[in-house]
Amino acid sequence: MDEAVAEYIRRTVLKIPRDEIKAMLQAWGFLSEAQLQTLNFHQIKDSISRDVVQLCEEKSADIKQAAVLDMIYNHIYPNKRMWSVYQMNKTGEETEIFDITDFKKKFKRRLRSALKNVTINFREYEDNAIWIRIAWGTPYTKPNQYKTSYVVYHSQTPYVFISASILKSNLPLLCQALVVASNYHDIHEMELRSHSLDSLKDIVFKRYNQ
What we know:
The chain is built from eight helices and six strands; from the N terminus they run αααααβαββββαβα. It is α+β, with helices and mostly antiparallel strands.
C-alpha cells in the first residue's frame, strides 16, 4: 500500500470520534467483520488508527477506497464544511429521465478532459442525493487528498450544494462538468452559504416545491 494512502487513512480515522470509529468502519465495508474484531477500540485513537492502517495494508487499500471512508465521514459530519448553493437552469421546460450511470460518465469525462490529475468518487444515498468527492491536482502534481471539493446533487431538483477547497480556477471546471452531466444549460451561485447543509436544503427545497 502506498505510504500516502496509509497516512490518509490514519488521519481520516483520527478525525472520527472514538465511540463512532467501529460503526464508521463497518459502514465503509472495506475491512471484514473478522478483521474489525481484532481491533481494540478502547485504546487511544492514535493506536486504533495505526492498527486500522495495518489491516488496510494486508488488503492493499488504494486511494479510491480511502476516499470512500472520507466520504462516509463527511456525510455524517457535513457541518464541518462550508456549503454554497448553486442553481442550474434549463432552456426549455422539458424534463428528462435522470440516468445516474450516464451522469457519472459525463461528469468524469468532462472533468478529466480539462484536468488529467483528479480523483473523483461518487456515492449515492437513499434521499436521491448523489455525493461527489473531488481531489484536485495540477498538470504536474498528483491530486491533493487533503484539499477536496464536495458536491451534493439532488437529481430531482436544479440545486447543487458545493463545499470547495480548491483553486479558484478549478471551480468553473467543476460547474461546467455538473451542467454537462445533468443536461442543464447554465449554473449560477445563489446568495446562500452555511455550515448547515440541512438548513440550506430546507430553504431551497421549500422554494422549489412552492
